[in-house]
């Protein structure tokens, strides 16, 4: 009987595919922002077709149709990458549940995003649905980042590397980072870049909600700086100190872009850069969360030397 043909998948290949999911999901956030910032949100006015008669853009729809349809095509690229990653996770030996589950979550999340994108078009770019679309993108990045990290670590119990007060500070930093993203979505929903000239806004006062957003950013900066100092003070591993430093630098860069765009009447280029920065801040936040614990390979206990047998003892003459 012939043995079934096997297609071995190396850990290196699986990790590269997992990393590709992170890059692809960041890219589609940026291109989705370009759709909105060029007022191409309704370039394809319906979904799943681009028009009532065609699944693709038509010359009559102009550049806005091309931009919107191009962003839709990128979804298929994400599906291909996520599908290849899931297949690789299933073929990898040993098959690991801790890797397969986040790989499934990425695939499901991308499909859900396609549906939410369709609802966004069908609701004429309602800011609440657009906001949900962005928040789900951040959850997708969480799943993709989890997948990437789990591929690179063994299936072993977590070992905590810092004291409980530091872990509490990390949790507060992660929660504040998430709050900054959510309130930032509300700021976007009140601003001028709606994706289409006729799209409604959420009705919030732009100055008031922007001030709330700025206050949360200052809180995040303070927590991140305190975390970096605390990690250094307790002698935390170098990787954790470095992750906190990177987070602080990314936040500072994002803050500069945010303030400049606010005081220059939100130019599209800076708004797009700010969306990219949101992804980078979130990924840097997740890196800090992962840096305060590790999973160490479980080594079997050393074998004990066999006790000498009494029957093999030399017999006196």
Q: Could you please describe the fold and organization of this structure?
A:
The protein has two domains: 8-155, no CATH class; 156-296, no CATH class. 67% of the residues lie in helices and 2% in strands. The chain has helices spanning 11-37, 62-91, 97-122, 127-151, 164-190, 206-233, 238-263, 268-291; strands at residues 158-160, 293-295. A two-stranded antiparallel ribbon has the order 1-2. α4 (127-151) runs parallel beside α8, α5 packs antiparallel against α8 (268-291) and α7 packs antiparallel against α8. The longest helix has 30 residues, at 62-91. 33% of the residues are buried.
Primary descriptors:
317 residues; flat; disordered C terminus
Q: In short, what is this structure?
A:
This protein has helices at residues 11-37, 62-91, 97-122, 127-151, 164-190, 206-233, 238-263, 268-291, and strands spanning 158-160, 293-295.
Report on the biggest sheet.
Answer: 2 strands, antiparallel
Number of individual domains: 2
Outline: flat
Strand fraction equals: under 5%
Nearest-integer average pLDDT: 89
Helical percentage: 55-70%
Number of helices: 8
- Helices and strands, in N-to-C order? HHHHEHHHHE
Adjacency order of strands in the biggest sheet: 1-2
Weakly predicted, low-confidence segments: 311-317
The end-to-end span amounts to 62 Å
Structural class by secondary-structure content: mainly alpha
* Count of distinct strands: 2
Cα Rg: 25 Å
């Amino acid at each position: 009987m012939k043995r079934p043909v096997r297609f071995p998948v190396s850990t290196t290949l699986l990790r590269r595919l997992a990393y590709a999911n992170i890059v692809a999901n960041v890219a589609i956030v940026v291109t989705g922002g370009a759709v909105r910032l060029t007022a191409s949100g309704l370039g394809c006015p319906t979904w799943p077709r681009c028009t009532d008669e065609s699944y693709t853009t038509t010359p009559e729809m102009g550049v806005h149709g091309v931009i919107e349809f191009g962003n839709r095509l990128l979804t298929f690229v994400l599906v291909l990458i996520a599908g290849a990653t899931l297949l690789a996770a299933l073929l990898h030996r040993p098959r690991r549940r801790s890797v397969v589950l986040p790989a499934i979550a990425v695939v499901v999340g991308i499909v859900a995003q396609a549906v939410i994108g369709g609802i966004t078009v069908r609701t004429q770019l309602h800011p609440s649905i657009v906001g949900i679309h962005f928040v789900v993108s951040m959850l997708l990045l969480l799943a993709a980042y989890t997948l990437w990290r789990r591929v690179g670590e063994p299936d072993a119990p977590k070992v905590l590397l810092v004291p409980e007060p530091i872990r509490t500070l990390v949790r507060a930093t992660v929660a504040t980072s998430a709050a900054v993203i959510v309130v930032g979505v509300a700021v976007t929903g009140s601003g001028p870049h709606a994706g289409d000239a006729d799209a409604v806004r959420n009705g919030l006062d732009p100055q008031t909600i922007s001030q709330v957003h700025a206050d949360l950013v200052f809180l995040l900066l303070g927590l991140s700086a305190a975390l970096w100092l605390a990690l250094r003070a307790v002698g935390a591993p170098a990787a954790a100190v470095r992750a906190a430093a990177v987070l602080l630098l990314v936040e500072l860069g994002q803050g500069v872009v945010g303030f400049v765009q606010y005081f220059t009447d939100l130019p599209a280029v800076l708004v797009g850069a700010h969306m990219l920065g949101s992804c980078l801040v979130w990924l840097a936040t997740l890196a800090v969360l992962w840096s305060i614990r590790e999973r160490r390979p479980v080594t079997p206990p050393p074998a004990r030397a066999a006790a000498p047998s009494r029957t093999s003892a030399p017999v006196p003459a």
